[in-house]
Design brief:
Layout: E1 5-10, E2 19-25, H1 34-37, H2 43-49, E3 59-63, E4 72-79, H3 86-98, E5 105-109, H4 119-133, E6 155-160, H5 164-189, H6 197-205, E7 213-217, H7 219-225, H8 228-234, E8 242-249, E9 258-268, H9 288-302, E10 308-318, E11 330-332, E12 338-340, H10 348-363, E13 367-372, H11 377-382, E14 387-391, H12 394-407, E15 411-413, H13 418-421, E16 431-432, H14 440-449, E17 457-461, H15 484-494
Parallel strand pairs: 1-6, 2-4, 2-5, 5-6, 9-10, 9-13, 12-16, 13-17, 14-15
Antiparallel strand pairs: 3-4, 7-8, 8-10, 11-12, 14-17
Length: 497
């Protein structure tokens, strides 16, 4: 069962049992809250014996400390005080949560000597705890034998800091971010037999409770719009496709919106160009882009972002039945451009091209960003540590790169160019949907570029980061929720008034 936390912020607090978490920077002689939690002064000797120096994310656990009102003291290192970033505070909170699996109540002394702790830092620490504690075990009927019964109720956490008012205000925003990340993680982690296009659309519809306007286009509406590329992917499945349009109107009435478009292939067999059986179960996560867009729209609404934003997700299932499209088929996209389907496993770009054209045509956005678990080629290039960034606009690309550094949802800019257009030119149609193995992620992006006109646009290939990416202090989940914090940071720093 995942841990749940109930947070309170206070200027002072004396622990009565439970765990006292004390933060200490590298080289400091004393930790935060030492005078309160360690009146007998056992920590200096314990730190010397345990060789604890305050190095970042290193811990020292002291059980039943003599003279303390706490049952246990956890020393947590912050590292270099002058180099602490927002992400460092998130990781510190995650590192603390990882050591608190059996706790019932926790007191965190945040104001380490030598550190200027802001309200946002306190909120980031708390959010880091929550992000580490997330797990997806909805379908387990038996819990592990060693899981304490206490985890059935929230762990009460008191964070002691001098910035109480600012911390409470910042934490309300941090909670909105956490909710969006967890929503995206839940969507990616859900099995495909539970989360089809219709069910995913229903999940997005729930954002109306937060003030998001949600429209759901069915197959009938998409046929009228001429979305032959998206519908061609869906035709092999008995589960009908959906296009979901989410609008958050938090900016000025006539201000052009920011647009976010997500690939939502709820399960990808590859179609007639079927994938190998090994690892195919992971293709339930091929809707990671749509999950991130949905999570982002939750965040913007929950924190009442001062921006107009549109989120569009194309939801389909790619299956190989008798009605499925074939290699060699030619489809007509909403733009009127024709596409020769060389490989039915290059389906995500077919979904996105119609969604991008629809978005651009209807909303005339000031910028469009799409997210998609699009190519295995991007994982060959960047592994699972960076997402690929392709863009027709240097300013937008620079803003995204900066947001990636701030959140550590890192991006690496990849090339676009006319020479790649030649690789996707077709003998029989305006283009083909794949240019072959070489430069696979680049030709996929070059394909999408044909559907955005002159609108500032960026494509994020998140195939290596949205699912199965390396775990760390703030993510222990298979579905990472990658993109939610990144794009919220982009909106916050570059587009909100």
């Amino acid at each position: 069962m995942p841990m749940k936390f109930e947070f309170a912020f206070s200027k002072s607090h004396r622990p009565a049992g439970g765990v006292a978490v004390l933060l200490q920077v590298a080289g400091a002689k004393e930790a935060a809250g030492a005078a309160v939690a360690d009146p007998e002064g056992v920590l200096p000797k314990a730190a010397k014996v345990g060789k604890f120096t305050g190095k970042a994310l290193k811990t020292l656990d002291i059980v039943a400390p003599h003279g303390s009102s706490a049952d246990r003291i956890l020393l947590l290192g912050l590292g270099d005080a002058s180099a602490l970033t927002s992400h460092d505070w998130l990781k510190a909170g995650g590192a603390a949560a990882a050591k608190l699996r059996s706790a019932e109540k926790v007191t965190v002394f945040l104001d380490a000597p030598g550190v200027d702790v802001t309200g946002k830092a306190a909120a980031d620490f708390a959010l880091g705890m929550e992000m580490n504690a997330y797990s997806f075990d909805s379908y387990k009927t038996k819990k592990s034998d060693d899981e304490p019964k206490s985890q059935q109720k929230p762990v009460k956490v008191t964070i002691v800091t001098g910035t109480v008012i600012a911390a409470k205000k910042a934490f309300s925003v941090a909670q909105a971010v956490g909710e969006g990340v967890f929503l995206a993680r839940d969507l990616v982690n859900e099995p495909a037999n539970v989360l089809g296009p219709v069910e995913f659309a229903a999940k997005a519809k729930e954002l109306e409770k937060l003030g998001v306007e949600v429209e759901i286009l069915t197959e009938r509406e998409m046929k009228k719009l001429g979305m032959g590329a998206l519908l061609g992917v869906a035709q092999g499945s008995s589960r009908p496709p959906r296009l979901v349009v989410m609008q958050w109107k938090g900016g000025k009435a006539k201000e052009k919106p920011l647009a976010f478009v997500g690939k939502g292939v709820v399960f990808d067999t590859g179609g007639i160009s079927i994938k190998p059986a090994s690892g195919m179960e992971e293709m339930k996560g091929d809707m990671g882009g749509a999950a991130a867009v949905t999570g982002l729209m939750h965040v913007l609404a929950a924190r009442q972002a001062n921006v107009n934003a549109v989120g569009i997700i194309g939801l389909v299932e790619n299956m190989p039945d008798g009605s499925a499209q074939r290699p060699g088929d030619i489809v007509t996209s909403m733009s009127g451009q024709t596409i020769e389907v060389i490989n039915t496993d290059a389906e995500g770009r077919l979904v996105l091209c119609d969604a991008l054209w629809y978005c651009n045509d209807r909303f005339k956005p000031q910028a469009m960003i799409d997210l998609a678990t699009l190519t295995g080629a991007i994982m060959v290039a960047l592994s699972s540590h960076y997402a690929g960034l392709f863009s027709n606009d240097d300013r937008l690309a620079e803003r995204l790169l900066a947001a990636g550094i701030a959140t550590q949802e890192r991006l690496w800019r990849m090339p676009l160019g006319k020479e790649f257009d030649k690789m996707i030119d077709s003998k029989f149609a305006d283009m083909k949907n794949t240019g072959g193995r070489h430069g696979g992620s680049v030709t996929a992006a070059q394909f999408l570029k044909r559907f955005v006109k002159d609108t500032p646009w960026a494509h994020l290939d998140i195939a290596g980061t949205a699912m199965g990416s390396p775990t760390d202090e703030i993510n222990q989940s298979w579905g990472s929720g990658f993109g939610v914090r990144l794009l919220d940071e982009l909106v916050r720093t570059s587009y909100e008034a």
